């Protein structure tokens, strides 16, 4: 006779971390002061957005820090999927879509998050490094290394924060960090930070995300 089972234990509901970014690549002769003005006028709109850890309003300028393009490329860390979905499908995302066209929205599952040594300083630069997850590596060891790298970045002088996340469809790892100076030594693509909305930054789960 089959033994009766009791009710399954309820899992504790916790905040999660989800990274998101889209890129608007602009003409080579585009006046990037238009982007600076746009963020100056509209950047406060997400300063109290429920479910948002932070949004960094980022741009790259052709010829600056080796950038080959002019680009507007906001990067987000979300505390909740509901907050992200409300942004994407509730109407707020339609503004940049109307102005620049609909971009591909990249998403990564959070691996690690750390506040940096300069956590209380305003961020002026961001570094993003994307890399392929090799086929022949044990995933557990590779992801642990990614967690360690986020911690090493956060421990550097001038680091405001550091995060790591993974896209398990493309098998792509992204490292993202913010800095209080314009010439960070971290490897990767350097962006100018125009504004940071960070209503839920304190609630972002620290350290390893599993």
List low-confidence stretches: none
Describe the sheet with the most strands. Answer: 8 strands, antiparallel, barrel
Reading the helices and strands in chain order gives EEHEEEHHEEHEEEE
Helix content: 10-25%
- CATH level 1 name: Alpha Beta
Overall outline: globular
Averaged pLDDT: 94
Number of helices: 4
Evaluate the radius of gyration.
18 Å
Structural class of the helix and strand makeup? alpha+beta
The CATH topology is Alpha-Beta Plaits
Strand content: 25-35%
Second-tier CATH architecture: 2-Layer Sandwich
InterPro entries: DUF4865 (IPR032349)
Protein name: DUF4865 family protein
Organism: Streptomyces polychromogenes
Blueprint of the fold:
Layout: E1 18-22, E2 24-26, H1 33-42, E3 52-60, E4 70-72, E5 75-78, H2 81-89, H3 94-100, E6 105-115, E7 125-132, H4 139-154, E8 159-167, E9 172-179, E10 189-197, E11 207-208
Antiparallel strand pairs: 1-5, 1-6, 2-4, 3-4, 3-5, 3-10, 6-8, 6-11, 7-9, 7-10, 8-9
Pfam family, one: DUF4865
Protein name: DUF4865 family protein
InterPro entries: DUF4865
């Amino acid at each position: 006779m089959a033994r009766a089972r009791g009710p399954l234990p309820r899992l504790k509901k916790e905040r999660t971390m989800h990274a998101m970014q889209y890129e608007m690549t602009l003409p080579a002769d585009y006046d990037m002061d238009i982007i600076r003005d746009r963020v100056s006028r509209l950047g406060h709109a997400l300063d109290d957005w429920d479910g948002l850890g932070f949004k960094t309003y980022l741009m790259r300028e052709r010829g600056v820090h080796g950038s080959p393009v002019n680009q507007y490329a906001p990067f987000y860390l979300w505390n909740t999927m509901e907050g992200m979905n409300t942004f994407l499908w509730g109407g707020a995302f339609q503004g940049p879509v109307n102005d620049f066209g609909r971009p591909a929205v990249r998403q990564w599952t959070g691996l690690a998050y750390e506040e940096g040594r300069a956590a209380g300083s305003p961020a002026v630069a961001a570094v993003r490094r994307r890399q392929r997850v090799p086929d022949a590596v044990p995933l557990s060891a590779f992801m642990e290394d990614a967690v360690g790298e986020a911690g090493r970045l956060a421990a550097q002088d001038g680091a405001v924060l550091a995060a790591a996340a993974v896209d398990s469809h493309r098998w792509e790892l992204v490292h993202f960090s913010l800095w209080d100076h314009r010439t960070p030594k971290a490897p990767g693509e350097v962006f100018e930070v125009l504004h940071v909305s960070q209503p839920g930054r304190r609630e972002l789960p620290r350290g390893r995300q599993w």
